[in-house]
Amino acid sequence: MDWEDTICAISTPPGEAAIGLIRVSGPEAIRIVQQVFRKKPDGSLEGQPSHTIHYGLVVDPATAEVVDEVLLSLLRKPRTYTREDMVEISCHGSPLLLIKVVNLLVRHGARLAQPGEFTKRAFLNGRIDLTQAEAVMDMIRCKTEAGLKIAFDQLQGKLGKEIKSINDQLLSLLAHIEADIDFSEQDLQVISMEEVKNKLVEVLAQICKLLEGWEEGRILRDGVVMAIVGRPNVGKSSLLNAILQEDRAIVASTPGTTRDVLEDWANIRGIAIKLMDTAGLRNTHDPIEIEGVRRAKEAIEKAHLVLLVMDASQPLQEEDHMLMDLLKAKKCIGILNKTDLSEKIEEKKVVERLPNTSLVRISATKHIGLDLLLDAIRDEIFHGQVVVGETPFLVSSRHRQAIEKAHQSIYQAILAIQSEMSSEFLALEIRTAMDHLGEVIGTTTTEDLLDWVFGQFCIGK
Q1: Which segments of 329-458 does DSSP mark as H helices, in order?
Q2: Cα separation of 222 and 142, whole Å?
Q3: Residue 362: phi, psi to the nearest 5?
Q4: 264 - beta bridge partners?
Q5: 248 burial via Cβ count (<10 Å: 0-12, 13-18, 19+)
Q6: Residues 6+ apart with CB under 8 A from 105
Q7: Per residue in 255-289, is it b (16+ CB within 10 Å) or e — as a string?
Q8: Closest to 90 measured CA to CA, from 134, 7, 33, 136
């Protein structure tokens, strides 16, 4: 891939829309666009200032055919997204029309952009670090307000600044240690080993604080999977519909109505949750229902949290007991449904079988107790309210793995001091920690790593 190429791509999502945006970036961006753009009232972009918008027509020079009436944003380097000359063409949002404009640009010297190439150029040209680049896709994909806030903070450099601060502290220590090594024959100590150890302990505490937020950060970004299970006809599908506030699942009094796993996303107390409504679990000879039961058990295995629905208007059945045994090792909330009817369930037996499980009383069809259930779901996942505060959340497993390796190297450096090992060993561990932290922000990279990160992007970004 030649970074001297000028690239172009459609940046708006596929499909019809009022406006479609085409991005062009690179050293020849303005010259290439000028060949197909007729500015009104005069026809040139030459000498026009940066960050200005121009009205005109896209014209095929070979045929003089007018392709579209557009607004063109002229952005001169370095104050652009990529730090290269850029042009953004706002066309009418016809997919066919957008493709015609892109083909014109390619014919006149541009190259189709690779996935994430605009953001990759922003990173390589030093406008953003790697955590900020990854936050671009997190912003696009986030499902909740909290996830959006974390992604925006990361885009603004919050995590990158924290990592750089830790790296700078290690660099300062390393400089002192290497000075000690250089002047060892003169018996001149620049910094004592006790001072180095104390500083490393402080840095280790900062890294531990970052790692502590990993699980919560991952949930806020990616969400969790929650399965709704129970024997047939206890109100699982009614509960799904009540949570989604729409008739997503067919509800009928006939047991076994749900034969497959229905999936949908819901925003519950700021948490993105993938809901799975499963077939009723019971012994059956119906081959289709048997397959539904098998898939329901698979859903239980995949789920981070299980809602066990029981019919409060009936005594506990054999299938209820079987499910309680099946869920003893899972994170679970017990739901006593149909509490608007006369209650016959033995709640004490449920508590005895699932002693560490929260019980919530609801009526899914009457929408009674749903707020209590939603609160219980949030508390079960987060053990209370999660506040996106001053400390940045880790949301990427890549970040976590690199920071854990840095943590291990710093810990080994502290052990090296306690074991009175030579300063060379100490310096090696600190350099290794810095390399791992550099992987997070992109100061230490490989082409494979960059290909993996930016390969997850859409083409126009």
Answers
A1: 347-353, 370-382, 397-418, 423-441, 447-454
A2: 8
A3: -140, 170
A4: 275
A5: middle
A6: 8, 22, 24, 32, 33, 36
A7: ebbbbebbebebebbbbbbbbbbbbbbbebeeeeb
A8: 33
Q: Which residues contact 120 (CB under 8 A, 6 or more apart)?
A: 114, 133, 450, 454
Strand order in the sheet with 7-10: 37-39, 52-60, 65-75, 86-93, 17-25, 7-10, 111-112
Could you give the angle at the alpha carbon of 60 between the alpha carbons of 58 and 64, nearest 5°?
105
Report pLDDT digits (tens) over 245-292: 877 655 545 554 454 578 888 888 888 899 988 877 766 666 666 676
Distance CA(43)–CA(41), nearest Å, equals 7
Q: What is the pLDDT of residues 369-425, one digit of tens each?
A: 999 999 999 998 887 666 666 678 888 899 999 999 999 999 999 999 998 888 888
Residue 320, classed as helix, strand or coil, is helix
Cβ-contact 90, 54 below 8 angstroms: no
Closest CA to 238 of 366, 373, 380, 347: 366
Give the count of beta carbons closer than 10 Å to the beta carbon of residue 425: 15
Q: Which domains does the chain have, with CATH numbers?
A: 7-113 (3.30.1360.120), 132-213+393-454 (1.20.120.430), 223-382 (3.40.50.300)
Residues lower than pLDDT 70 in the chain: 1, 182-190, 248-260, 282-290, 292-293, 384-390
Spatial CB neighbours of 92, under 8 Å, sequence gap ≥ 6: 18, 19, 20, 68, 69
Among the listed residues 47, 50, 67, the one whose alpha carbon sits nearest the alpha carbon of residue 107:
67
Radius of gyration of the chain from its Cα atoms, rounded to whole angstroms = 30
Residues 284, 290: Cα–Cα separation, whole Å: 6
